[in-house]
## 1
Amino acid sequence: MNRFDYVRPNTVAEAVQALGADPQARFIAGGTNLIDLMKYDVERPGRLIDITRLPLRDITEQDGGYRIGALVTNATVAYDARIKERYPLLSSAILAGASAQLRNAASTGGNLLQRTRCYYFYDTATPCNKREPGTGCGAIGGVNRIHAILGASEHCIATHPSDMAVALAALEAVVQVSGPNGDRSIPLSEFHRLPGDDPAKDTNLAPGEIIVAVDLPAKQFKTNYTYLKLRDRLSYAFALVSVAAALELDGETIRTARLALGGVAHKPWRNPEAEALLQGKPATRETFQAAADLILREAKPQSTNGFKIELARRAIVRGLEQAAAGTPQSQSDKRIQ
Amino acid sequence: MTVQFSPAAGRDRFVGQAISRVDGPAKVTGLAKYAGEFAAPDLAYGVVVSSAIAKGRIARIDSGAAEAVPGVVKVITHENRPATSQKPEDYQDAVAPPGAPFQALASDRIVFSGQPVALVVAEDFETARYAASLVRVEYETAAPLTDVAAQAGESYDPPMKRAGIKPPPEPWGDAAGAFDGADIRVNGQYRMADEHHNPMEPHASTVVVEKDGSYTVYDKIQGVSNTHDYIAGAFGLKPEQVRVLNPYLGGGFGSGLRPQYQLFLAMLAAKDLGRSVRVTLTRDQMWSFTYRSEAIQTISLGADRSGKLTALKHDAVQGTSTYEDYQEVVVNWSGVLYDCDNVALTYSLTKLDTPTPGDMRAPGAVTGVYAIETAMDELAYASGQDPVQLRLKNYSEGDQTEDKPFGSKELREAFRQGSEAFGWASRKPEPRSMREGRELVGWGMATGIWESMMMQSSARAVLGADGRLEVGNQTGDIGTGTYTILTQIAADTLGLPLDHVTTKLGDTTLAQAPVAGGSWTAASSGTAVMKACRDLAEQVFRLARGMDNSPLANVDFERVVFTNGRIEVSGDPSKGVALTDVMRATGTDKLEATGEAAPDKDFEEKYNAYTHSAIFAEVKIDEELGVVRCTRVVSAIAAGKVLNPKTARSQILGGVVMGIGSALHEESMLDHRIGRFMNHNLGEYHVPVHADIPDIDVIFVDEEDKANPLGVKGLGEIGIVGVAAAIANAVFHATGKRIRHLPITIDKILGAD
């Protein structure tokens, strides 16, 4: 771990100013990922800007939805009575991730900005284009059973580890950011990016920008939803595949469908074609299988993660079944519904 | 020769009781200090720089930038490393396998990934850690070989056998011929994964340089004598120049049996700098020394139509390092567990460019018993026998590998009590025949076995004028409850309240005792403490009898009991005297005694001694998604006398949890291209979490054993053995899919179609 300067601004404007154009500066809130990365010398910030004093800790109602301040902890969001009641998918996804201790510390903004859990990214003895552009990808042809099956590139096959972001993608949340050029909004689905030939860049956040809030739109999916997470032990592991499914039904017919996958790509994975396919169809296993097939049509296996394609196919079907039946996956009872 | 447990004592007042850990309050309040927590005014901090490659040499190492950091004291590399002993045997610790032990920073050669290449010593930890990141190393890389399956063809019979590890017995009968002619044949290859011990406490050593030039060493070790002798040998010191302590251990599981390289480096730096040094390894560095190396195992079973074994072949090829021939007992268990006339057991090694593997909880048995107990389950289905009945049909009444009877073996009773508690009788034998909602339900069982051992050990006991007793020896309490059981034994032998007894362990100034391993500590140290206390009892009795107007005059030792701090005539409490009164009346300041325990040669010549278990496991499986939940485990243990049901149960619980990990989760994943374990942290190396652990029912069946006066056989390892097979067998029962490669993860359930 390198040595660094430390500053603690009180306002968003001060924070943005402190970050300035300094590529060596990093914001720190909960620090649940950044500190690890610093211990591994993956991140070597010259300056830490502690943003925990910024006034971004409220959940407020707006436009029929909610605005979640960037510093609201994951635990606070998950257990907020309003969120639990109106956006149970989000609450469930957060509780599917990490541990109680981590959720108590981790912030909403930081959750979106956590880095991949690719083994090679964390290990400075190995090549990694995300950590050190141009060194190559160690995971391709290496140990990659947890890696991407969708949207990967020849430069990077890492996945984004967040559960919360998968639910936010399905809910079509909007990320509010502030920067040297003012404020702007980024739809969650466009917030993270695919690795392409620049895997060092996880998100479309511009240099100097800070996340100030995440907006939840009015649509809630209170009844027909699920967050189904499959992993290598029953708790406290990153997803091999996760599915956020949200439906609106007219009787047996699907009126609206939202589907986002975690653990399979460099970003929460949505496929508008598949969602369109589901619309107007009967909520049956056949329909769900057709959507799954469509989503996975372009899936590509790595040397040891081919099983994730079939697993994703089955998880999508099960997730949609759970959502349609109104029997969302419990995050405490580990039996799969 | 058998000695009664406590001939003169108020017999078994505490022994056999569920006494809470006597070291518990110190641990939960943080007063218990661990090796990396001891300090000294002149303490410097060492951080290890680890090799990025697995094989090759260091072409260039540049520590200039690190040395330039203010606060850095020294950067030690192979280029400036102070000399230590030139004799490889000086580095062979008490449990070392044959070979030339690894010496840190000895040369430019790299023989495993993560090998230490530099030690950065600084005034504070943060500076050392930062400076360590500035050491630049250039390597000449050679292609490493780390795939045991790929190297299995290069296997060899280790020319030197490891002390204490029985090689496979000579074959008996004609296993190959009998297999070919058998009515029923089962044949399979069984694989596990490389596993790493991962105790919660990091490996750490604090070396304190005393004013007189001697060294006080706090080391994460399972027995201080091993560290002491290693340091004296490697650094050419007189035994009295080194004192080693390790009062507490935050888990070892075998990783603390051998002195690890952080000790060598801390000592190297301390001696070189003439100041105290602490080196603590990171979690990731736990993947750079010792591991449970996978063995490629093949088993062939032949049986008649009733399921009676007619042929048993068990072969294992296990990985070791390039510089030591690590060996453990993998295949012999098959020959011990089952009665069969035609048996061939073979074990060989193959060289890998990894650190030397090491003993990890029930070393060898976890590996070998997983394979034989899975194969036996396959035979049960092939012969249409209930798995328990099949095992009873082939039950061994003696150890065929050495033609000796068992000292005791209550495995039948373990099967009976275990199956009853589990409800095994209501199991439907057909695979895929039990279901609950969406989930398939599987019930599987297996046998566990571990050798019951005893080691030469001493213990010292000192009774003060205040009636307080101190006992102890060098062995370590590795979290098993040794402090507690020794306190119980001492208190009972002298009839004292528990709080009048203090047990001291893990200090080379105490009486000699070996490392804590092999499940031998309760038998060895327990017997030594009992004998020391019995000696004290005789001494204090003689004093009491010699007192003026002694109520014990003309009473024989055999006729008194020690109870409530008094010596009393058995059956006549009115005739007695308090120990404190004896001490005062006779002007005795203190009484001291040493107890010696050693294996009973007569017993060992006549008998072989093992502990056994019967494990029953339930799994529930969502087959479509490949999700396995272990929902119930019953472990029935036959392991002699239980000194403390509470700490004993905890031992078995821990073993079962670790067995569940072995079955379903634990896997160190090697990138063979670079010879490196890649998931080297607890986020990605999965051990079970609470959600993975069901209710575990532990049963101790009565077993009388006479190998030692306490009647104990050891509990540290038996809890884990066979658990993985029971779970894998339950997975088969649930799904009809036989997965012969641990851990059983989602991909394997999906892929087994």
## 2
Amino acid sequence: MARIGVFICWCGSNIASTVDVKAVAEAAADFPGVAHSVEYKYMCSDPGQTLIRQAIKEKQLTGLVVAACSPRMHEPTFRRAALESGMNPYLVEMANIREHCSWVHEDRAEATTKALETVRMLVEKVRRNTPLEEIRVPVTKRALVIGGGVAGIQAGLDIISAGIPVTVVERTPSIGGHMSQLDETFPTLDCSQCILTPKMVELSQSPLTTIYTYSEIEEVTGYVGNFKVKIRQKAKTVDHVKCTGCGICVEKCPAKVPSEFECGLADRKAIYVPFPQAIPNKPVIDRPNCIYFAKGKCGVCKKICPAEAIDYDVEDTIVEEEVGAIVVATGYDLIDRALYGEYGYGKIADVVDGLQFERMLSASGPTGGKLIKPSTGETPKTVVFVQCVGSRDDSKGIPYCSRICCMYTAKHAMLFKHKVKDGKAYIFYIDVRAGGKGYEEFVKRAVDEDRVVYLRGRVSRIFEKNGTVFVKGSDTISGQQVEIRADLVVLATAVAASDGARQLAQKLRIGFDQHGFLTEAHPKLRPVETNTPGVYLAGTCQAPKDIPDTVSQASAAASKVLGLLSSDELVREPLVAHVSESVCISCFACEDTCPYGAIERVEWKDPETGLTTEIARVNPGICEGCGACIPVCRPKAVDLRGFSEEQIYSEINALSDMFKVKR
Amino acid sequence: MKSTSVADSTKTASTQFLERVEEQSGQKVRICYQCGKCSAGCPVGYAMDLLPNQVMRLVQLGLKDEVLSCATIWLCASCETCATRCPREIEIVKVMDVLRQKSRREGYPSPAREVPVFVSAFINNLKRFGRLYEAGLVGVYNLLSGHITKDMDKAPAMLLKRKIALMPPRVKGMGKVRKIMKNIEEMRQQ
């Protein structure tokens, strides 16, 4: 026999001014199964909770309905209060008569009726609640970081600083990411290499770190605290254990291809180390461009290698790792050049993008830090910088702001003026967005000290006529059309999601937006978590951001990882789905529907017939209790603990009974 | 600097003006964020009194008199360079069309006087002959615009190459053409 206690909260005047709480408490006392019904000014306060705790003992209550605010606010509070009096916390339910009632209604009589109906529904539900136990799952104390750019490096460093081992998977032959390509960084103009490479070394030399370069994620299974990850190590063709990194092979290799690291401004060999400070500083063979792999002839590297490290027969290998948490830090790419035909991007030699300009500025770059016109090799005197190339452009399918361009363009113009004292720098902009510590001051410095000229307007067209590059733009402030003969044009091309981000997101079962950026659990309050527990985001894979923000987010993701891995067991809410074995017809529609991959196939022996069949089982460690499996289950074998069909129907029936009475 | 009170009028006539222009052109003028790419690439921009982005701005602010009496709307060549490149995908040409219609209908004088003269001569020519009679159009336009001898020197060569004809074209079904013209007139009345 149910003995339910109903506790109506005034929430000061928040509820009581719109809902007649006394009337609700009196009426609720007569509901079937209700043994006790009271109201109180602040149910969440200490006296309020004491009221509940005493009533549980004195009235021998078997369940509670607390009619107050949203369960998001105080469900944990009241469940804890119940537990202190020896009641299973899952026998407590909240009727939301604040957010769903008093706050959104004005008519007192109607609001009171609605509050009563809500309480009635919850009473019916609680009558059918069963005691539930929290789910405990063990935790693997190791983290995986996907992507070895500055975000991945920072997250990795912060995780190992707490003594937790970390596995870093990087797609290219070296860690370092885009930051290793940059020259100086805004707003302090400190050299990118000088602040990044020590971090690369620190991460790679820690005994807690395992780095897989030239590798990609093949498959991710498991769940929070217990992921199983398959990593595909692409065949490097060079045995990094034997290789001493002497570099003779690179020197002698006859095959040249445009270097990705130098953004096509210089060539690299088919056997290569992407840049001098690379980690690991040992080469790989880029097989599609290797003469030996294309034609079966050459083999110079193998012949010359003193360490006999070259083996043409090695194949991709799959490594398996078990980790408790995953940080995704896959970074960004620049937009496709073909998107901007009107700017001659990719066609006119003296039109380059921001990353190419960085390589030209860099002392270790293809020009040794000398600025040149790529077409002639002369020093450019007039450089035009164009912002928002792609960004904020619905017609190119990129409505967002890339966030970093305003600042790096100011920096580019500044560094150009530092190198070419008598040069002229023009920046076409729409709005200058310099919201960051020291950013606005930095832009002012470009105008004030370095005499950079800002022109407000988007450029319409960039074209070449008799070897001269013309930039046709406007200055909307003076209301004039502007045409500039430029020696060099630098396009601030939009930041786009990294190639393959979508596919990786699908493997991890995390969300991504229409542009391929990965989705956080909440844009404000859970910015580094994803909707899949145990998977976190860091850096530009989530949205365009600069280095300070990327590093902050990486550290935030690491702190989330450490919070998760600090306990030996994970405690999870028991509100998960379960399958009734004898009813399951093995159609596995639930398996296809489950967004979290929580459905497993298990052998089950029917105790009545003795037959063994393969049926669905819910892994409670993975299940998020979303309930998507329930409507697709044809024989109704799946049900949700704490939100069973019986409970939901009893709520609906209670409500329809009250409607009948009203009529 | 010329001062125009935007705040006073935004609530009434001016927002109506923006809404009418948007409705008639089918273009969301309100989302123009003044990047100026239209003005940057406009081949007629050098001759305009207001650049295309400024026209869009005046429409946004509802400054009807300023925009309907400018020369730009008459100088626009409808080449669609702006529309092709607009990052907000506004077809400025359609907005210009609507502005020209409004300007004519509401009797605003055009600073680019020849353009409306040409447009009238062109339409009357079509009404009369059903197809364009170039020699007639040039004659009427030159008379009304005051450039009597304009392009006369080109006439012999064009006649010889049969680019223009001396006599008006003969069109079958002039009755139908007149009916079309009448329908247009009736639609306009509505």
